[in-house]
Amino acid sequence: MTGGRSPRSVRRIRVGRAAVIDVGSHTARLAVYEVGAHGGFRVVFRAKEVPRLGRQVADDGSLSPGAVDRGLQALDRFARDLKELGNPPVRAVATSAVRDAPNQDRFRKAVRRRTGLRLRVLSGSEEAYYGYLGVAAAWPLDRDLIADLGGGSLQLVRVRGGRFGEAVSLPLGAQRLSDRFFEHDPPLPKERRRLADEVEARLETVRRLRGARRLIAVGGTGRALARAVVQLRGYPLPQAHGFELHRSDLEALGEILHPMAAERRRALPGIGRSRAEVLPAGLETFRCLLDWTGLDRILVSGHGIREGLLVEFARIPVPASADTLLDRSLDSIGMTFGPLVPRHFKVRALAERLYDAVARRRGWGDEERMALATAAVLHDLGRVVDDWRQERHSSYLLRHLPHLGLSHRSIGLAALAVMAREDDLPEGVRREWRPLLDGTSLKTAGLLGTLVRVAATLTDLGVRATPVRGGRRLSLHLPPRFGAAGRERLLEKVVRPLDDRFGLGAEVDAR
User: Fold this and answer.
1) Pairing of strands 119-121, 90-94
2) What is the pLDDT of residue 227?
3) What does each C-alpha distance from 426 to 341, 400, 416, 421, 429 come to in angstroms?
4) Under a CB-based contact definition with an 8 Å cutoff, are residues 398 and 414 in contact?
5) d(CA 111, CA 93)
6) What does the pLDDT average to over 75-95?
7) For the whole prediction, is pTM greater than 0.85?
8) CB contact burial 398-415 (16+ within 10 A = b; e otherwise)
9) 437-456 residue pLDDT tens
10) Which contacts (CB < 8 Å, 24+ apart) does range 157-160 have?
11) Helix (H) or strand (E) run with residue 29 in it
């Protein structure tokens, strides 16, 4: 594999299972992960409860008896789940609602007595740091602003050169804002305006954090907004992770959601019953964040505090390059479907060599290169389902698998590349993908598919390919006793496609 992993970093990683419990102001979540030798990880079990610890707190911020009881019931269930899973090592943390509660010690002791779990209360800066670690395990970072919007607070982290910079915690959680400003259902325009005024005023106190090139959203509210837009657009990729929420998306959602009562919002696809109540406040907060940063879109991350806690526990090195993140994705895919074999990486290496010979003339960049590398390794993954239609199965798996470091455009290019038989794609497929890929991108997917098929054919025939004459021609080095049938296949599957579709000539060196 590529990615620049050092032997030392591989040895340091804790391989095996680990669990994380995150008790927020609105929801409580359990995730059990399996960590691979190279830092890839996958979820093997997931559970969610909605204790709403931040609801109906006392004037001094104390957790109500009802909230305590709901929290204990949620954690009791998680403890039973962990026992059934063999009691993997667990890190359990609580955030804003418990952090702000004067009776937090009593709650933690009750949790310990009833479940055996040791609940650690994170400070605002610690919560921000773990959110950063989670995002850094999913994306190559540079000059970014991470906004972790929870039920009780908003954590903002300034990232510089991929590293954790300054962080602040503001009392702008979606549940807290809903309880404070919304007296009607649906909220009145003047209530939304007062909420926005509060968010804008709080953000003005941390103007020094501005200047990011990208805004990354962490938390369930951002994911719910992304899922809603995915449904409204007829978007071809189902995952919220990696989705880009544009300003126009938030405006369109506002027109739909603001007149709706919570019960109607719960019926909308993608939102979920537990999130519908706080979604208007979250939407307004993200709109204010876009205005404050001067950016026009938000990148939604499915990774956050839970993955950050796992990264620290398993000692997974972050930040990481796009190539390293791709390797970790392949690591996790191998844990799910079985180890990837050397042939997969030979195809990738050869496909990347071919890509380098044609990319500049095509105007291709990092997104196309990452799509090609992904498609080259996973082009025949669909064989785990069925040999006969493995291309379609591979495409389906590619669009549904979790990917680290890949934009949605790269995932779409890869998913279509493994399915494309020619430069062009059937009209039905083109129509399905138009919400994500324009005509030029659809053409690119077909061309990337050609490079993958050529690389796979050369690998299977044992033929080496070396670019010559400034990368405009290929020298094909045949193995000994290369017969007539192999030459015919080479001509049909390699020489002609490269010439017809790329103007890339190939000359056979039989020595």
Assistant:
1) parallel
2) 92
3) 32, 21, 11, 10, 5
4) yes
5) 12
6) 97
7) yes
8) bbebbbbbbbbbbbbbbb
9) 999 999 999 999 999 999 99
10) 157/128, 157/129, 157/131, 157/132, 158/209, 158/212, 159/132, 159/212
11) strand 28-35
Percent helix, strand and coil across the chain, each rounded to 5? 50, 15, 35
The residue type of 46 is R
Give, in degrees to the nearest 5, the angle at Cα 52 between 51 and 55: 140
In terms of Cα–Cα distance, which of 190, 202, 210, 172 is closest to 290?
Answer: 210
Give the separation between CA 5 and CA 461, rounded to whole angstroms: 30
- Give the separation between CA 253 and CA 269, rounded to whole angstroms: 13
pLDDT at 54: 84
Structure tokens at 135: 């995002």
Mean pLDDT for 93-111 is 95
Q: Please say if the pLDDT value at position 11 is more than 90.
A: no
Alpha helices (H) along 385-467: 390-400, 408-417, 427-433, 439-461
- Please give the radius of gyration of the chain, using alpha carbons only, rounded to the nearest integer: 25
Single out the residue of 449, 443, 479, 442 nearest to residue 464, CA to CA: 479
Q: What is the DSSP string of 462-502?
A: T-EEEEETTTTEEEEEPPTT--HHHHHHHIIIIIHHHHHHH
| pLDDT on residue 8 | 38
Number of residues that this document lists for the chain: 511
CA–CA gap between residue 84 and residue 414 (Å, rounded): 38
What letter would DSSP give residue 243? -
Residue 424: per-residue pLDDT: 65
Q: What is the mean pLDDT of residues 25-38?
A: 94
Give the strand pairing for 297-301 and 214-218. parallel
**142: number of Cβ within 10 Å:** 14
Reduced to 3 states (helix: H, G, I; strand: E, B; else coil), residue 42 is strand
> Which residues are 414's β-sheet partners?
none
Distance CA 435, CA 217 (A): 22
Q: Which of 365, 366, 370 is nearest to 326 (CA)?
A: 370
Q: Which two tokens stand for residue 447?
A: 């061309």
Q: State how far Cα 436 lies from the chain centre.
A: 16
Residue 101: φ, ψ to 5°: -90, 125
Secondary structure (3-state) at 155 = strand
What digits encode the pLDDT tens for the residues 123-154?
999 999 999 999 999 999 999 999 999 988 99
Tokens coding 222: 């951002």
The band of 233, judged by pLDDT with boundaries at 50, 70 and 90, is confident
DSSP 3-state of 299 = strand
What domains are defined for the chain?
A: 7-123+308-314 (3.30.420.40), 139-302 (3.30.420.150), 340-509 (1.10.3210.10)
**Distance between CA atoms of residues 22 and 40, nearest Å:** 21
